[in-house]
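Title: Prediction job returns without error message
Component: structure pipeline
Severity: low
Priority: P3
Assignee: unassigned

Description:
Job completed but the reporter wants confirmation the result is attached to the right record. Sequence as submitted:
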Amino acid sequence: MNKKILIYGGSSLISLELIKIYNNEEYEFIIFCRNKNKFIERLKELDLSTNKFTIYESDLIELEKNLKIISEIKNDLDGLIWVAGETGDAIIEFENTAEAKKSIDINFLNPILIISKLTLKIKQNNNSFIAVITSVAGLRGRQKNFFYGSANSGMISFLSGLRQKFSGKISVLTIIPGYMKTKKFNIDAPELLVTSPKKAARIIDNAIKNKKEVVYINFLWRVIMFFLGLIPEKIFKNFKF
């Protein structure tokens, strides 16, 4: 019998790389994505049959629609991978309450409500897993992304609580990626700080198999965030990065 894995944010490059990995291990997939036709086209580009995929078209902002779909999913999932979120614009969000609320809804409130419902659909046999991509932005607040960062900080805390609640029943993995090389990536950063989706997918897969609690996709970000965490707030508040 094939195992079932649900991927929220199925059209992302990391998701597609993970699909290629798990497709070799006889998984069936439940996919949530914004554009079903676009996702199917990507499957065809990868020469993957759509027979093993159940695809739902839904935006993360549409909470009620998501919850309705989830209510119809059977309680036999073996895994959940969450690859969804938006960085937004902190300047606009600070001045516009609606945009600020949207950022919090997309990156924290709706995800934790959806993940909570999906957790009840996952087998509690200590071999099942939840893996969620967060952000280094959630490790320390910065003026350039503090709505997005605070949402991710909340997500990291939520996953810690979820991990404790389902300890010995479901493995919960917090993924902290750093800079990812995608089509939208336009940050002038050293190559050492940037990771390809293919490499990221391999690291995530290995962390899931080894039932890790937290994994940094790029170890350099663990080092950077460790030292940033040591800087006293009195000094840190004067930085402009």
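Comment from assignee: result matches the submitted record. The chain is about 45% helix and 15% strand.
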